[in-house]
Amino acid sequence: MIVAIDGPAGSGKSTTARRVAKETGYLYLDTGAMYRATALAFLRRDREATSEAARAVLPDVQLGVKHERGEMRILLGDDDVTRAIRTPAISRLTSTISELRPVREKLVEEQRRIARRFASEEGGGVVIDGRDIGTVVFPDADVKVFVVADPEVRARRRKRDLEADEVSVSFEEVLADIKERDRQDRRRDIAPLRRAEDAIELDTTHRSVEEQVQFVVDRIRERRRGE
Predict the structure, then answer these.
(1) Nearest-5° angle of CA 218, CA 125, CA 162?
(2) How far is it between the farthest Cα atoms of the chain?
(3) Which one of 48, 81, 130, 168 is most buried, by most CB atoms within 10 A?
């Protein structure tokens, strides 16, 4: 089973997806981390976010995913960059490179490959979060959820996550970053952020994490009963 959870930055989709995967015994794939790791590769190569630069950088970008104690870790080559990619600078660059066709084509292919391998090896399911999972990567996903929340709430969540990773940043900076990412994500020409027609909306503004998880788990159970 493929469970697609989409939504803007800080909406709670990643937290929900991780917990849903744990609750159901499915594996979790954070596609946003794959874009962030690719952005880090651009940064390390000191390359601008252009299609020409992408064609030079991408052949050397070797992404890997592993799970430790139920948590997904993202690798760039042999380097575990799970924490290194969670900074405002990487967030801004990620939105920019995600507009580049060569980047999206490579990562969509990688996401499909990894998700299908997970599902095949485990014989169960995969919970995938991102911005275009239900519309582009897996338009035939068994369950599609589109997560939303007020920008201020999302900024507080993101600031808390950054501080947990020992990244010092102001609320104003995080809020401005989220609003700019929303603008870029919705206006980009390639795979803009939008809700799939058959996706169920989940507003997490006033919901606890437990309520968010239960909402998605209930949708999965409903789908199972319908099979």
Answers:
(1) 80
(2) 51
(3) 130
Cβ-contact 50, 100 below 8 angstroms: yes
**pLDDT of residue 227 exceeding 70:** no
Q: What is the pLDDT of residue 99?
A: 86
Strand extents, DSSP E, the chain: 2-6, 27-30, 63-68, 71-76, 79-80, 126-130, 143-148, 200-203
d(CA 5, CA 128): 6
Asked if residue 70 has pLDDT above 80, the reply is no
Q: What is the mean pLDDT of residues 68-82?
A: 91
Structural domains in the chain, CATH included, are 2-226 (3.40.50.300)
Q: What is the pLDDT at residue 223?
A: 93
Q: What is the rounded average pLDDT of the residues 71-77? A: 93
User: What 3 state SS string does 58-121 have?
Assistant: HHHCCEEEEEECCEEEEEECCEECCCCCCCHHHHHHHHHHCCCHHHHHHHHHHHHHHHHHHHHH
Q: Model confidence at 122, in pLDDT bands (50, 70, 90)? A: low
Q: What are phi and psi of 75, to 5 degrees?
A: -115, 140
Three-class SS of residue 200? strand
